[in-house]
Structure prediction request, 353 residues.
Amino acid sequence: MDKVAIVILNWNGKEMLRQYLPGVLRYSRSEATVYVADNASTDVSLELLNTRFRPDVQTIELDRNYGFAEGYNKALRQIDAEYYVLLNSDVEVTEGWLTPLVSFMDEHPGVAACQPKLLAVHDRESFEYAGASGGYLDRYGYPFCRGRLFDTVERDNGQYDDVADVLWATGAALMIRSKDYWEAGGLDGRFFAHNEEIDLCWRLRIRGRRVCCVPQSCVYHVGGGTLPKSNPMKTFLNFRNNLTMLYKCLPDGELRHVMRMRWFLDYLAAWQMLLLKQSWGDFRAVYRARHAFCQWKKDFVADRTAIQASRKTSSATLRQPYSLLWQYYVKGHKHFSQLPGNYSNDKLKCLYK
Prediction:
């Protein structure tokens, strides 16, 4: 059994592997076993792994492209380890990055998962969109981070260098106990990609487990390695999966109100995409996403029942009670520290010692 298994899910990512996998091996091999799970790539990824990286990298070959969520589920079922690290192929790790994460998890058995601080490869003084220094949700399910609200990404001036409990940790560099991963049901393979790590972390929080950001570990992320940010498929997956996650995880007393508000907010967003951004593809993607959610919602009734039954009433989920849209667009709060609550660097400490 491995102590730590770093698992990189690859699909046609030979250039990312060529550029970033050597650093993962250089700075991680003494503390972890490195795996690459290949989602039936059609480029020369497997040839590259076999000729350049064996025997230092263990390869898992999947028979087709299962997407991010189910691809990881398929791969992790073949790995026996105490801790999994789900690592994107476009992440540049740094010397000693793994040690703070492992030490923190060893010392805090109540923590199910954690992430390092995520900075941008192309602007190394700024946070990276996908996870920054730990993630949260607002009342209506909009994700944001310490260091990133919507498209506003902050410079890293050490303002979020304290360990903090968060609602979700980024799937770009996620350390999670294998026991917690499987007890919570793993990533929801039906999502294919996008919002799947938020969904998993929210389920962990509902079960009374903790999720943290440990900024003493720092990595750099390219971001958008598979689908560019403006891709309508990405818009479709984000909206459909976010609605599904809300349906699964919201408490009974909030479900109807939040879903009604999202109906209004989603169509407002669609028309904004069309009229202000002239993006017909994204406009259609939002409508398709809402239709797809309505079509498959019945398939998640059992999931919702099980998740609600697992709820620990004493556990706060760190989902915020306000609307991020209101805070950002109306009140002009563009930085995390400006949001309601005691979010100053000296007060936003880990909730549990």
In short: The CA atoms of residues 14 and 45 lie 5 Å apart. Confidence is low (pLDDT under 50) at residues 343-353. The chain is about 40% helix and 20% strand. The longest strand covers residues 210-221.
